[in-house]
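[Solved] Which block belongs to which protein?

Original post:
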Amino acid sequence: EGDYQRGQTAAPMKLLKEVGAALCRLPDSFKPHRTLARLLEQKREMIDTGEGIDWATAEALAFGTLLTEGYRVRLSGQDVARGTFSQRHAVLHDQSRSNWAEGTLVPLQNVADGQAPFTVIDSILSEEAVLGFEYGYAAAEPNTLVIWEAQFGDFVNGAQVVIDQFIAAGEVKWGRANGLTLMLPHGYEGQGPDH
């Protein structure tokens, strides 16, 4: 236990259901991909019944509740909008749009009135540069949940210097804590030596 601060992290069921409903709400004019429409229907059922909540839905509920409490959430990395395994769907695309730069929807930006901002950035595949930037961002914004996600967990090797010299050693070296969160997804085998 030591000197660590502990807090209440549970969210009321009423709030979870409200956030869950917002995650599945689409404007009437928005036409999702048919596979995504099916996934959103499954998510609605998970939220309604409270059963079978998968990792991606739990993650979105956690982000959504933080946003309603006034905490900013920033997520970056290659393919974070859809998720490495196409599980997240943080950015939805209208299938009837006429311009590729229009017709996107980010449900976590529309959870509640007065919520904190949610930012999702599909970054370039330059792990060292992006992780270094996010480390600096997290240092400057300690009340923001800043997450960098490697496209695959093994890709973090390209950012090892930032991890060794800043994330792992920064507090001892400079007396500065940093709340940057790393997500290192794994799960599919046989996709080549980097996976």
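(Second protein starts here: sequence line, then its structure tokens.)
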Amino acid sequence: MRADQLSWSKTAGWRGADGARDAVNLVLYFATRQALACGGRYHELQAMFPDAHILGCSTGGQICNDDVTDDEIVAVALSFDATTLRLAYETVSGPAQSRVCGEALGRALKDDHLAGIFVLSDGLNVNGSELVAGITNLVGERVPLTGGLAGDGAQFQETLVGGDCVPRSHRVAAVGFYGQAERIGHGSAGGWDQFGPRRRITRATGNVLFELDGKPALDLYERYLGEDEAKGLPGTALLFPLRVYDPDRPDHDLVRTVLAVDHVARSMTFAGDVPEGWIAQLMRGNFDNLAAGAADAARQAFAAIDEHSASEGIAVLVSCIGRRLLMGQQATEEVEAAGAELGSRIPCLGFYSYGEISPHAVSGRCELHNQTMTVTAITEAVG
């Protein structure tokens, strides 16, 4: 397997990937919505790599090795030696169709030789929990499923996904990896601190939260944020995610990020499900703990591949936009922490998302996460 990184900027155009382009099987790319909206960059990649599947999305910032940027498109051209690929995509009209969309993708990719799936989804019109459930219901929980929800910075206006087509809204695309040589490692970790009282989710429908302890959910957030910060919702809520868990399984906790608020209904829409009866607690960030979480995620991913029999590979980092907004210019610290665990042999690229998809570190079951760093290591065994 060979991985060639490349990038695009307004001043220099495309740089990198000077190897044998006809051998490239898959191109992954990440950029801001503004950079992708015209479709020109996709057509350029298509012309450069005519035999490759091309998969990418809009972001809240791009990750390239130890750097975080908004100005460049980051990409990697992957050439596999003994792995075959299949790309599938679906159009989803809204959150209610998320499970059906996931099932359609799972049906298209299901195969006895399926070794893993990497999925990119619209970040605003999909219930990530239902999407994940739909895919895993078809392919089974033993197939590693990783990826993320496309982002739009802190604007929450529109997200774009492209799977062998110009990036567009309401799109979900996934690539399946097939064969015994494929090695996919994954890891996910947070690093947020809990604070405030634990509250029971007393009224919710799917990913829409109405009440905590019988009181309007939005009231709780506004009280903690204060009048000035509350005016910036939903963006300001990214700094205070919600930890949710089944009281019968407290070690299987998930973190949820706000995507939208309804000031009339006093409700909040999250990227994934917030089941009634579960416990919820507010969280806040600690820079050191967030960087340590990123390192932990990379450590999990690297441990899952056989470093002694693996060829060159790539690590795809998907971190939450809330982490970046909180850390600001220090966001590079979590990227550097992840890179230090992976070492120089495996280059990194990725993006800041509206949701991260990865198996849960405790249960092993694939979930939609928020406010985590997830790492997917993709490589092939040698010999």
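Accepted answer:
You had them paired correctly. Confirming on the second one: The first helix runs from residue 33 to 36.
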